[in-house]
Amino acid sequence: MVKNKNSRRLHKCPSQNKTKKSVSQITSSKDLIQLDDQAESDNTAAPPEPQITIQSQRGFPDRVYLLASVIFQNNHLKKPTAHQLVNYGSERELPLPEVRDEEEQRAAYELAFSTLKYQELLEDIMTDSCFYLTQPMPDEQMSLAAVMLYDFQDRKFLPRECKLEEEIVQEVRDLEDYLLRFKTRLAASLARCRIKHDLLSIECILPESVKKKQERSSNLPLYAWVNTLKSSLDEVQGVLKSAGFSQVKSIGQLEGQTFCQDPHCGDLLVFPAQLKAQLYSTKLLSEHKLIIQDKSCSLGPNAVCSLLPEEGHVLMVGSFSGLTVSHTASLIAEKYKANSSNQPQVYVCVNNYTEAQREELELTVSAMGCNNVKLILEEFQSLHACNKQLQKVCVILLTPKCSVSAISNPVDFILQENGDTDLLQDLSQGSIAQSKLESLVAQQRKDIDHALMFPKVLAVVYSTCSSYPEENADVVRKALQKAQALSDQEGEPKQAKFRLGLSPFSSSEYAEATDEKDNFFILEPTEHTNGSFLAVLTREPEAPHNVIARANARGILDKLGSNHLTRKEHHGNASRMKKAASVRTTQSHLSASIQPKHQQTKSSDSAKLCGHQALNNMQQSSQGKPKSLYPHALKSTITSSFSHSRQECTRSSCSSSKLEKSATPITTALHASSSPATPVVPAVRSREAHMEVLKPALFVLPPVHFPNFFPPQHSQSRFSPSLTNKFKRPAQIVSSRSSGGLSKDAREKPFLCFDFTKTTIKKS
Length: 764
Known about the structure:
Elements: H1 17-26, H2 29-37, H3 62-75, H4 102-117, H5 119-128, H6 131-134, H7 142-154, H8 170-181, H9 183-196, H10 208-219, E1 222-226, H11 233-242, E2 246-247, E3 258-261, E4 268-271, H12 276-281, E5 290-292, H13 296-307, E6 313-318, H14 322-335, E7 346-349, H15 355-367, E8 373-376, E9 393-399, H16 410-416, H17 424-428, H18 434-451, E10 459-464, H19 473-487, E11 498-500, E12 514-515, E13 521-523, E14 532-539, H20 544-553, H21 567-593, H22 602-620, H23 632-642, H24 646-651, H25 656-661, H26 663-672, E15 698-700, H27 721-724, H28 730-738, H29 744-748, E16 753-755
Parallel strand pairs: 2-3, 6-7, 6-9, 7-8, 9-10
Antiparallel strand pairs: 1-4, 1-5, 3-4, 10-14, 11-14, 12-13, 13-14, 15-16
Helix pairs in contact: 2-9, 3-4, 3-7, 4-7, 5-9, 7-8, 13-14, 14-15, 18-19
């Protein structure tokens, strides 16, 4: 079988001359020939340096190998027939066999992902050792041979340890026997490949981007957010400190049994990677008080919580787990826990989830104690603002499926966040195929464009874990441009425009790794964190004329601001104007009917002005008195009748001492001024201003003062508080009038009495 060198993507590992010499001394070409002729039971062959992986040195159960082989079969790199070294058959999209627990599933995906990374190397070993040509097995079993060969060389070609209660898969056991009989030849072939490509270890054959991710993934710390529905940040920190943990200030100081608080998310704690077992011993994880999840998944929920108004709801769309939903719901519930009667809801669009994924999401949300989560089974593209459930949605959290190219441990992330497993083959080679990238971008554009169409949405949070600008800034900018174009179209009611909002996170700790240009929040992947991208699109305040235009387009404001009226509208406006004129005529006749005949005299005007001032004093001093003495309708009528002369009243000054000395002249002056020099013709009442509109009422004013009857030296004095705060009840006025004269109190404390059922001022 001819080998095509162009089909291989092998990368030499940079090394020094001394290192090259040591490799050649370990295994020379003569030694390799002798190894081929050795007995199969001989274990003296120099094994390759082991690769650091998560699996045990004892191997895996049979069902893990079987699941890993199906995953590899569905995702392996399929070459043209002329370039194939090993034929895996033509079957794709095989159903995955069931496994017992989550750890076995994770182990199977990790094993399949590692096999994808070293697919070409493993094919070289199988062909060079003649294993592929001499073993009578169908092509469909070569995927199982590839994953078992990778695990075999990782265990230094030592046999695995099987448990007695382990489930036996005969297909796996038969293939394991073949590999054990060929272990010497397989080890020799691996050694020749390392010498040929000058590899210190098999990791050197990987692309540089894959090697960097693999190195970072082994050093990534653990991130865990505090579930405020079960506990609090102070309580969790107290439990950790009582268990022997010590708190440090930054991630760079994490060493030993320590933890720190994340600089961007206040509810996020960071631990060294090797402390997972110690965290389980505190029972914080088992009691769902502390949740381990990648930091990139916590940025979106924290951003949404900072943007959500008190009476608004949240809509989550995209690819996420029940942990992300629970985190969002717990943050919102904690922020608005005082408003328990109208707590914001979290609506989750799960139309692209399988039945098993939906059940898992519901179980996770229930276990976290979230009661404000509701699932929507409809497709997001079919949801509109008219949906009754979404009337109060103010913020949309959009985390679409992306290339996950900024994640150093993609297998863990894809499994935990319901990502796309079809990306495993591309991620194993360090780059995403252009066709897959374009497909992802197209779906992202659809989602964000539709999110911006909701008229009541105030903000859209767009978050990915991609390092490609096509999935990040380019998607956001094109979405804003499209929304701008739709808003500027003529003939359509203009919607409020969206713009880039400020990032809700500060970059004090990650100043070298964060780029906030154009208001984007970009976190580059480092040995301390995975990469992520976040953008906040906020709605601009809508101009008033746009609001009126949209209301007129819907017929809400009856063509407000339009000069062109239909005949029917013109007739309706004429009727309304006629009624308004009639009301104004009635009000003018009514005001004329209650004016006194002697209103042209100067003394009468002064009486009105001072009476108005006394009314204000009466209102201030009557807070403890019954409200029935000062009816609201009577107060408004008197205030309007004296409003014309308010300024003149402020200029006049009254003397309380003069009122006390001369009560009789005031009464005489009132009688003298009751007959004006020029009689005023009473206003004729119209039939429309019938007196049934008003109820008979009496208004009593306190003692008044006319400056003409007092000596000039006391003109600057004011009312005496003892006089201004005393008033006569209407009952006393009626009794004194019926007796034909004034009572003793009335003669000592004169007053004016207005009877609104008459047209003149009563003299008393």
